[in-house]
Design a protein that fits this description.
globular, 2 domains, 13 helices, alpha/beta
C-alpha cells in the first residue's frame, strides 16, 4: 500500500469512527509549526478535557461567593462531592458503586489498603509482585514487609519475565503462585505493566491467589480508562489507580480505590480517618470509629473538591463513549499501528508489547533495534516533529493511542516520522 493510499485509508477510518467527535472535547497542544501534536502520551498524562476548566472555575466561584456554605449549597455541595463521581467510576472499572471511591493518590491508597489486606504471619509473610514493577509499588511493598518485621530478601518475591520480549506468561504466574502459595499473604500485580504494556488476567490471578489462601490486589494505574475492566465479577480484594493518565483528570490528580463488596461490612483493621466514618453519625464527633459501608469507609479526609472537578468532567466523556466502544476502537487502532510497524518498520523497531489483543491495552512499547543511543535519537526526532510519546529507561519508547482523542491519522504521523528518521540516518 503506497503512502498516499495509507493516508486515504486512515482518513476514511477517522471519518467512519463513531467516537470521532470526542476529540473535540479535549485541548490538544499545538506545535511551533501550527499543527496539533500527535499526542501518544495519555499513558503518562492525559489531555485536558475542555470542560475541566469550567468545572474548576465553578467551584472557585462557589468558594468566592458563599465560602463555607458551599459545603451545603448548589447543585454539587462539597460535602458530597466524592459521590458525584462514584457511578462513573463504577462504570469505568466494572464495579458496583459501593466498591469504588476517589481519594488521596495512588501510592497513599496502596499503603492504606495494604494496611487492611496485607496481614502477614510467620507462616504467610510474603508478597508476590512482578520483577521490574513500577518503583513506587516496589518501594511501598518493600516498606510494608519491613514495617511488619519481615525481610524483603525472603518475603518479597519478584516474578521474573519468562518470555523473550521481557513479558510474563500466564503459566509462569500460575506456577509462581502455586509454588509459593503456602507463604503468600498477598499477590499484588498490575493491570497493565507500565514498561512493557502487557495486560494481566485479573480474574485468573485473583482465582489463583484465593485458591492459595492469599489476598489479591492490583495496581490499575495503566488499566483505568484503558481496559474494559470487570472488577466486581473478577473478584480481586482491592485495587488502586490514578486518574491523571487515561483518566485525563490533570497532573497529580486525585487517585481511586476499589474494595470488593464482600468486604463492605468487614471489621478488617484499617487506618481510619474522620471521613471514613458513617455519615449518619460523623458530625456527632464521637470517639469511636464506625466505618461507612464499602470503599468509602477507607477515606481519611474530606474530598479535595478542586481536584475532583476535572475528574468529574473527564468521566462524563467515558460515560458518553462507553467502555466497550472505547476498548473496541483501542484494539483496532493500536492493532493497526502494530501491524504497520511490523510490516513497514520492522527493520527499525521491535515491539515489546504482546501482539495478542487480549494481552495488550492502548500502549505499544518499542525498542529501536540499533540500540539505546539510536533509540534516544529517534525519540528526540519524534518530539521535534510534534509526535509525543515518552521514554522509559533503559531503552523503551512508549506510544499509546488513547481512543478518546487519537486518530488513525495521528498513528500515520508516527509511522511517517519513524520512516523519515530511518531514511535520514541511512544516508
Amino acid at each position: 500500500m503506497s503512502i498516499d493510499a495509507l493516508e486515504l485509508w486512515a482518513l476514511d477510518q477517522d471519518a467512519a469512527d463513531p467516537l470521532a467527535s470526542l476529540r473535540e472535547a479535549f485541548e490538544i497542544p499545538v506545535g511551533a509549526d501550527g499543527r496539533q501534536w500527535a499526542y501518544f502520551c495519555g499513558n503518562s498524562l492525559g489531555l485536558q478535557p475542555r470542560a475541566a476548566r469550567d468545572a474548576v472555575l465553578a467551584e472557585l466561584d462557589q468558594w468566592r461567593t458563599v465560602a463555607v456554605e458551599g459545603h451545603f449549597r448548589g447543585k454539587l455541595p462539597w460535602m458530597d462531592y466524592h459521590a458525584f463521581v462514584r457511578d462513573d467510576l463504577a462504570l469505568v472499572t466494572g464495579a458496583r458503586p459501593v466498591e469504588v471511591v476517589a481519594m488521596n493518590s495512588l501510592t497513599a491508597n496502596l499503603h492504606l489498603l495494604m494496611a487492611s489486606f496485607y496481614r502477614p504471619t510467620r507462616q504467610r509473610p510474603a508478597i508476590l509482585i512482578e520483577a521490574g514493577a513500577f518503583p513506587s509499588d516496589r518501594h511501598a511493598v518493600e516498606s510494608q514487609v519491613r514495617f511488619h518485621g519481615f525481610d524483603p530478601a525472603t518475603d518479597l518475591i519478584e516474578l521474573e519475565a519468562d518470555e523473550p520480549a521481557g513479558t510474563i506468561s500466564d503459566a509462569a504466574i500460575a506456577e509462581a503462585i502455586a509454588r509459593h502459595g503456602e507463604r503468600l499473604a498477598l499477590v499484588l500485580m498490575p493491570g497493565v505493566q507500565y514498561r512493557t504494556g502487557q495486560v494481566f488476567d485479573i480474574a485468573a490471578i485473583t482465582a489463583q491467589a484465593h485458591a492459595a489462601g492469599a489476598i489479591a490486589g492490583f495496581d490499575l494505574a495503566h488499566a483505568f480508562g484503558n481496559l474494559d475492566l470487570r472488577l466486581h465479577d473478577d473478584g480481586p480484594d482491592f485495587a488502586v489507580w490514578c486518574h491523571y493518565k487515561y483518566g485525563n483528570a490533570g497532573p497529580g490528580a486525585v487517585g481511586g480505590a476499589f474494595v470488593h463488596e464482600r468486604h463492605a461490612d468487614t471489621d478488617r483493621p484499617r487506618l481510619a480517618g474522620w471521613w471514613g466514618h458513617d455519615p449518619a453519625t460523623r458530625f456527632l464527633m464521637g470517639p469511636d470509629f464506625v466505618p461507612t459501608r464499602g470503599a468509602d469507609g477507607w477515606q481519611l479526609s474530606n474530598p479535595p473538591v478542586l481536584a475532583l472537578a476535572p475528574l468529574r468532567a473527564s468521566l462524563a466523556l467515558f460515560r458518553q463513549a462507553g467502555m466497550d466502544r472505547l476498548r473496541a476502537k483501542s484494539l483496532a487502532l493500536t492493532g493497526w499501528l502494530a501491524q504497520r510497524i511490523g510490516e513497514d518498520l520492522g527493520d527499525v523497531l521491535d515491539i515489546v508489547t504482546p501482539l495478542v489483543p487480549h494481552r495488550r491495552g492502548a500502549q505499544l512499547s518499542l525498542r529501536v533495534r540499533a540500540g539505546r543511543d539510536a533509540g534516544r535519537a529517534l525519540f528526540e526526532h519524534l518530539m521535534a516533529q510534534g509526535v509525543i510519546g515518552d521514554w522509559r529507561e533503559p531503552d523503551v519508547i512508549r506510544i499509546a493511542p488513547a481512543p478518546l482523542y487519537n486518530r488513525y491519522t495521528d498513528a500515520l504521523r508516527f509511522l511517517d516520522a519513524v520512516a523519515a528518521w530511518r531514511d535520514q540516518t541511512a544516508r
